């Protein structure tokens, strides 16, 4: 079993899971979320370690969650993303190249921990093969602050993932891509919006925007901002490819997604779906898209 927790700005989303075998489906037995003061976490990590750890412990106890091994998915300002083009070299040397490029490009200090995933290999005639990688960086002290907070809740972090990597894995498992046409995945969160552009079934880039915190009375304020940002992403996609956006896939605050789906189809004339639970999972507690990053973090690839 494993507990997957996504920490956003002001919110924690978690799913409790179990898998009988590495190849078998992942069973979701519990889901829950809670809100915490946004000031508790920033780009330096967890500012209020004791308070956050105690709140996490209280919610685990209240919901009778006994699993202590945790996969931690970061979806806040603690993490930095950067796409890099690097030469394809010996696998053992690649991390050093990524670290050097990240430090030079973003003026980072040696205090940052870095990791990366390879998005694709690019081979051009008479040129050396290049790797397009998505690199991430996080202050070592920020990581340590999360470890301390989780330890306060008697939880053991066994893996750390990023929201973007979780979405990439989940999109592939959900069979979002049926051909090479561009697709936009839209995460409508509480107080923020994140858009992901995919081409040829591969991640291209993401963009963030602020939203008002959603409540039932905020639909009229939230939907136009979502629509405007998606329209901008569609226009941007035409600067990269002559192909139009094949479809838009929604996730996030489940209560508002059907309204956004209808508005987008009526105004942009692009098919719009709400992301479905991939066959990798089975759930005894229903399915809500607000948990998809936590779902994606459970996919270990």
Question: Could you please describe the fold and organization of this structure?
Answer:
With 301 residues, this protein is of the alpha/beta class. It folds into 3 domains: 102 residues, Nucleotidyltransferase, domain 5 (2-Layer Sandwich), CATH 3.30.420.40; 61 residues, Dna Ligase, domain 1, CATH 3.30.1490; 99 residues, Nucleotidyltransferase, domain 5, CATH 3.30.420.40. The protein has 7 helices and 16 strands. It has a 6-stranded mixed β-sheet, sandwiched between helices. A 5-stranded mixed β-sheet has the order 13-12-11-14-15, with helices on one face. It has a 3-stranded antiparallel β-sheet with strand order 7-9-8. Strand 12 and strand 13 form a beta hairpin. Helix 1 packs across helix 3 and helix 5 packs across helix 6. The protein is globular.
Topology:
Blueprint: E1 2-7, E2 11-18, E3 26-35, E4 41-42, E5 45-46, H1 49-62, E6 69-74, E7 80-87, H2 94-106, E8 112-122, E9 130-139, H3 140-152, E10 156-162, H4 163-173, E11 183-188, E12 192-199, E13 202-210, H5 219-240, E14 247-252, H6 257-268, E15 272-274, E16 281-283, H7 292-298
Parallel strand pairs: 1-6, 3-16, 6-10, 11-14, 14-15
Antiparallel strand pairs: 1-2, 2-3, 4-5, 7-9, 8-9, 11-12, 12-13
Helix pairs in contact: 1-3, 4-7, 5-6
